[in-house]
Q: What sequence folds into this?
């Protein structure tokens, strides 16, 4: 198995530009500036790089959506909103290898004919914003960013845009509205960002980790890169493991690593050697797996799809056998209710209803009919909203009901307190 | 009102965006970093600087949870209770902080030293449980660590 770390190698002080250059940094940018933009896009396409922001979209393919000729400005937004519960990988890039990301963003901009890059970072990451700003300043000073990059005539600016506490701003169209100075409301698609993005101009949005892969592909070649890990989603991944493991943290390993290996070999297993009750494989939005389903499951898009879930952000959350998982699901649902932007009724109301029903079960006040009611609400949110936050709220609930129905059943109150619906007194029923 | 230094910063930010409206978030950050919160008067002031209606500024301030529409304590403590922190004992941390400071979420101490709030995942799930105090993250928390920190903040 490929074990070399590409994104977060163990090199002391790699965040410093002198060390980064000593290690061959910014050579990929030099190489790229000597290539035709289309050749770069082709290289990325052939590498099979897929987005690390959650949706696994093929990156090179996304870049071809950008119009070649455009009378308008074009923009690149690097998505560092990182607010999906269980996800904490992009911050490691800002801290330990910021220049790899910067270099990747610059290559992407050159390949798509873009002159302005906005790096959107969640507001709470004040420290990491400072670290990245320092790296950007150093790159400006070395003429890797600016009016005439390395005297090639390529002109590009890079600005950090600080968020202010809103999970929804990680959604690409909400992110653009937030940069434009508005509330972070997702937009209806189409039109897609490549046609009508920031200020109505062609725009591409990529995750921080996605862009950090680009210099590696350029310097090592697509053939080399595409052989690492799972063929359909190659490369290494920054897995984040949290919850009930002995050594939680970020682990860089190839895609397609065995989930059980990740938990046991790398993250040190479950404290007290307890059994695993459930895991969430890729951040809070992904479907749950039961502890007895993990054998042989690999961490890549295809394998996880085969067991009915998805790779998401690669943030694995582990729950041991003593966990009150109903409380966990309720907390996650509370999160989506809190973060819903409120534009779509199914998401705004539905998330609240789901939370309310789940709370009844947490308190042992649920009724048997509540299980189907909950599923009905979740099913009616899924697919009926402007953005995927609605789906993200529905999926955990749907999978939980499918896999842990007994958890509900044993919390059903013998004599339910739910009363028959009696209309309020001011409503008059008219007989016809 | 922004200080002269901050007003200069605001002017410098203009070259980054094609519209003035895009400066809404950067300007609100300048105001909050200077004053600690964003008052009604500050919102009016921001609207003038941006040449936007007050309703726009108000709408933005109230949408984003990090913008404080009320003053916060000298030490503004925010505790994550989301999934990974919940699994690693955030409830205990919450109890400890609340009991020691005699405060509930959303409250501020009478001497304005402390205020506390519950927050959603702050991207420290691998070092849970965690809390943020002003701009700083405190991770891998235990009750002892919390006590130690609160002792420190009470003296300073
Ligand atoms: C509710 C919601 C939140 C999201 N949050 C993030 C985020 O924090 N970071 C991120 O990179 N992508 C996030 N995404 C995905 C983005 O919309 C987008 O697909 C991604 O940034 C594209 O980058 P990629 O193709 O490089 O993966 C989110 C999507 C949704 C629906
Ligand atoms: S699905 Fe939810 S978060 Fe997304 S646009 Fe609709 S209301 Fe807003
Ligand atoms: S769940 Fe608390 S920091 Fe992520």
A:
């Amino acid at each position: 198995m490929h074990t070399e770390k590409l994104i977060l190698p163990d090199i002391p002080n790699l965040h410093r530009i002198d060390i980064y250059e000593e290690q061959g940094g910014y050579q990929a940018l030099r190489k790229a500036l000597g290539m035709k933009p289309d050749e770069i896009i082709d290289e990325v396409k052939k590498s099979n790089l897929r987005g690390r922001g959650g949706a696994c979209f093929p990156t090179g393919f996304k870049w071809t959506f950008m119009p070649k000729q455009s009378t308008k400005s074009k923009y690149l937004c690097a998505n560092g909103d990182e607010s999906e519960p269980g996800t904490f990988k992009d911050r490691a890039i800002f801290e330990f290898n910021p220049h790899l990301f910067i270099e990747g963003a610059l290559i992407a901009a050159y390949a798509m004919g873009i002159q302005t890059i906005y790096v959107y970072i969640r507001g709470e990451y004040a420290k990491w914003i400072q670290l990245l700003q320092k790296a950007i300043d150093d790159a400006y000073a070395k003429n890797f960013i600016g009016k005439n990059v390395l005297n090639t005539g390529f002109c590009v600016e890079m600005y950090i845009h600080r968020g202010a506490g809103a999970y929804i701003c990680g959604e690409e169209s909400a992110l653009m509205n937030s940069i434009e100075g508005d509330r972070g409301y997702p937009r209806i698609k189409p039109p897609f960002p490549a046609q009508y993005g920031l200020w109505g101009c062609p725009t591409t949005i990529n995750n921080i980790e996605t862009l950090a892969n680009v210099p590696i592909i350029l310097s090592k070649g697509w053939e080399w890169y595409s052989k690492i890990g799972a063929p359909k989603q190659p490369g290494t991944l920054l897995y984040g493991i949290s919850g009930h493991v002995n050594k939680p943290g970020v682990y860089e390993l190839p895609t397609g690593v065995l989930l059980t290996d990740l938990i046991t070999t790398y993250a040190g297993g479950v404290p007290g050697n307890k059994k695993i009750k459930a895991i969430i494989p890729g951040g809070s939005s992904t479907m749950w797996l039961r502890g007895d389903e993990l054998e042989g499951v690999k961490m890549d898009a295809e394998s996880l799809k085969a067991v009915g879930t998805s790779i998401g952000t690669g943030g694995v959350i582990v729950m041991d056998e003593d966990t009150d998982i109903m409380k966990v699901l309720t907390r996650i649902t509370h999160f989506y209710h809190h973060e819903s932007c409120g534009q779509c009724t199914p998401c705004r109301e539905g998330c609240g209803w789901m939370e309310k029903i789940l709370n009844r079960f947490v308190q042992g006040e649920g009724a048997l009919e509540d299980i189907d009611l909950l599923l009905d609400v979740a099913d009616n949110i899924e697919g009926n909203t402007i953005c995927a936050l609605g789906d993200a709220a529905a999926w955990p609930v749907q999978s939980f009901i499918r896999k842990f129905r007994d958890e509900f059943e044993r919390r059903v109150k013998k004599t339910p307190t739910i009363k028959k619906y009696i209309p309020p007194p001011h409503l008059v029923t008219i007989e016809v | 009102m922004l200080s002269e230094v901050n007003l200069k910063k605001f002017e410098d930010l203009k070259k980054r965006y094609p519209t003035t409206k895009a400066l809404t978030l950067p300007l609100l950050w300048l105001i909050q970093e200077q004053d600690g919160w964003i008052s009604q008067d500050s919102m009016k002031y921001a609207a003038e600087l941006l040449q936007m209606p007050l309703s726009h500024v108000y709408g933005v301030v109230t949408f984003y949870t990090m913008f404080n529409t009320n003053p916060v304590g000298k030490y503004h403590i925010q505790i994550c209770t989301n999934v990974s922190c919940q699994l690693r004992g955030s409830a205990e941390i919450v109890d400890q902080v609340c009991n020691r400071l005699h405060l509930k979420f959303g409250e501020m101490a009478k001497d304005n030293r402390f205020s506390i709030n519950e927050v959603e995942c702050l991207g420290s799930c691998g070092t849970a449980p965690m809390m943020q105090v002003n701009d700083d993250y405190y991770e891998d928390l235990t009750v002892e660590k919390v006590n130690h920190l609160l002792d420190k903040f009470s003296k300073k």
